[in-house]
Specification:
The protein is an alpha/beta fold and 280 residues long. The chain is 43% helix and 16% strand. It is built from eleven helices and nine strands. Strands 1, 2, 3, 4, 5, 6, 7, 8 and 9 form a nine-stranded mixed β-sheet that branches. α1 packs parallel to α2 and α5 packs across α6. It is globular. Bound molecules: adenosine monophosphate, zinc ion (ZN) and fe (iii) ion (FE) (2 copies).
Length: 280
Amino acid sequence: MKFADLHLHTNFSDGTFTPEELAGHGARLGFSALALTDHDTVEGCERMATACAAAGIEFIVGAELTAEYEDTELHVLGYFLNPQNKKLLTEIAKFQAVRQNRIHEMVTRLNELGVPLEAESVFALANCKSPGRPHVARALAKAGLVKNLDEAFERFLKKNRPAWVPKSKMSALEAIELVHQAGGLAVMAHPGLNRTDEIIPALVEAGLDGIECFHTKHSTVMSERYLEIADKFHLLVTGGSDCHGFSKGKPLIGGVKLPYEHVEKMKEARGRKTAEPSNR
Ligand code: AMP
Ligand code: ZN
Ligand code: FE
Ligand code: FE
């Protein structure tokens, strides 16, 4: 049986694997298709495409956009994006700048708390345009200022903890539109994590194409619930591990195996969308 993992991060955002390492794990585990969904960037996709091609794996260009709907944070996955789409690149560059500024703000708060972390050490460790809290956590651990990443999040970085800084986000409706104009399919990521089921009808109204039913942190009951919701709203079904390499304990790739028939349905849906040229 063929299967796919459509939710993966590399060191182009807050994962620890390079695209080549990630493709290598995908090949070892027997995946037929992989999608890269780094946070607010498509930069890693070119290398991932090359690495997947060399390993005989089908590759899908993706991204995970941080968005909000009426003060609820949600993540919108885009698939089959044109990675050269101008509007996509312009918009995600804005959110990359937001992420970089936020690192400075988090470090300032840590310094005010007496934790002597330097922003430069976070940027050096992150070495990417989409830095985030996991990089701050790793820099804190590396400097011996916390024992481990959990302590960094629990003491400082979790929502409403003293060094947490909210992040300005695009609206979910803008995210869906941005994905569509870049030729992609828009999918709601890990709905079970955000507990945002009540907003699904509004997102469907805005053109949502699919929902991530299978995810490392979804229980079987949750997956079944979202399969029913997908059926009810005629949404595509997707799934992935959300592997971040060693950034969150052990690598998760291999833990979620999406039957390949869902990838075929995504490709059919994309084919039906006779989108105008998206490279404007
Ligand atoms: P950011 O995009 O900067 O808000 O960071 C989000 C990333 O931090 C995601 O990959 C989350 O899974 C990760 N994250 C959030 N909370 C925790 C936590 N308590 N422990 C470890 N990682 C976390
Ligand atoms: Zn992440
Ligand atoms: Fe997410
Ligand atoms: Fe993710």
